[in-house]
Each structure stands twice: as structure tokens, then as C-alpha cells.
Fold this protein.
Amino acid sequence: MLTIALEGLQCYAHHGLYPEEQIIGNHFTLDIQVSIPEPEDPADLDESVNYEMLYTIARRIMQTPQPLLETVVHDISTAIKTAFPAIHHSRVTLKKQAPPLGGDVARSVVTLDKSY
């Protein structure tokens, strides 16, 4: 298996359950990891996953506000699998910085780990 990943993609988005979160927004960090069978020709991008496309997919989905981070990671996973059917495994982790929980919390984290 070949693993391709983007780590630490920084976004400002308006995801959150509370109306204030959807208005004010927050800082998010996104990690995406996918695995595909080893390409016969490792120099052929058509046999791999273009991480620029991973970035484009993630940025597009992050722009649509959702009440739950679970929805965001699901939508990113689904879009990536649609764009790259050869993917055998994906892992999408979304971290919200300083979630409004009434206490000192560095981040909340949601991860969707899928095998196909």
C-alpha cells in the first residue's frame, strides 16, 4: 500500500452547533490520509492520488458551514473516495481550536477512519 497525506491544513470556517460559532467562525486544522495499492509506475500521477486535489476538495467542503464536525469529515471522505476510486483506506481528522465549552480546552477532534 502507498499512503499519501496532507497534514496541518489550516482553515478558518464557520462550523459549529451554536449560532455564534456559525457567525464568528473558528480556526480548524485538517489532516487527510489515504492509502492506495502500490502503483505499477510510481512516476505516473494517474496511478496515484494528487494531493493538490485532496487540498482543493477539503477547502471546498470546509467553506460550507455544518453544525457537526462529523458531517464535515464524512463529506470530505466521500468526496475523496468519489474523486479517487482506487483508495482502499482514508482517515480524515478535523480539529477545532478552542471550542466554546465554557472551560479551557485546546481543541476538539473528530476523526473518520474508513476502509473500502
